[in-house]
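Q: Structure for this?
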Amino acid sequence: MKKGQVNMMETVAVLFIFFILIIFGLFFYYSFQKGNIQKEREELLMARAMETTSYCLELPELYCSKGEAEAEGHCFEVNKLKHAQTTINGNHQYYFDIFSFAKITVHQIYPQKINYIVYDYQPSAWTRREPTYFIVTLKEETSNIFANQEFYGLGYLKVEVYS
Amino acid sequence: MKKGQMEIIGLVFIVLLITIGMLFYVKFSLNESESKKVYTRSGLATSTMSAVMKTTISEITCFGPYQIRGNDNYITIGKDLIEDCAKWHQSQESEYKCNNKHSCDYVEEIMTGFLKETLGVWNKNYQYTATLTDFNGKTTELIKISSQKGCPRTVDRDTSVPFPIRVEQTGFVENVIYICD
């Protein structure tokens, strides 16, 4: 093989490696960007999960109150929970603006196991569901001829958001 | 420098570049969002303590001073049972008794069930302690509940604010729960 041919082969080999490196670089960049977009979507979903949970914990339709403006922390009233779905279904658009696509349930674990569906609006198709949990106390007021009694059961709030 | 040496240095440089690229790729692809985990864990810890302390016991086999208090006819875990446990932890008997058990044992039993049914089901590890600090500064561990792995200092864990309960003529009980993944 002549010297010129050898030089040319060398140049072709160098160019080949150069293009391979560029293809590698592009592949990495693409994967990195794809991962970033995916991560951003997940972060948005998680932010929505946190926001929806915070809204729920401070929802006057659910939280415990004694006529004062300030709510009792981490507490839902059982009587309110029993009627929450009816109230929410009757004002669907208002609550959809707050919760969007989500499922909100309250599960009582003590003294009895009872589940309350507060809000349930799932999209027809979804790829990911993000659940968030918070333990709450569930206040039930009972009354007898002598006085009102407040019983605090235990349960948890489950907020699922979809993307 | 000879041509061969130059080529080897070039080759090493390319290999290094590819390795660094791969490391970056792995690092960023495995990086999970921490903000939600922290929010969930610390929020969960606070809500768990707040809710459990307020929970009232419906157990009909309980008896104690609450029965003569009048309207307030239920036993609260924090206000009644843990306080009673702090007062009577050195004795075999306690003022409050549920299922014929000492208040310390009953709180441990019922709280173990609560935590297993919630945090345990959600695959969270936890560690709860109720520690009594008397007026001389002496500390005594009254109750300790932990998941199988617990939450040692070495792992990434979050905690609630301490829930102190003042116990008359005894001291303070500090209730702390740690939650980790």
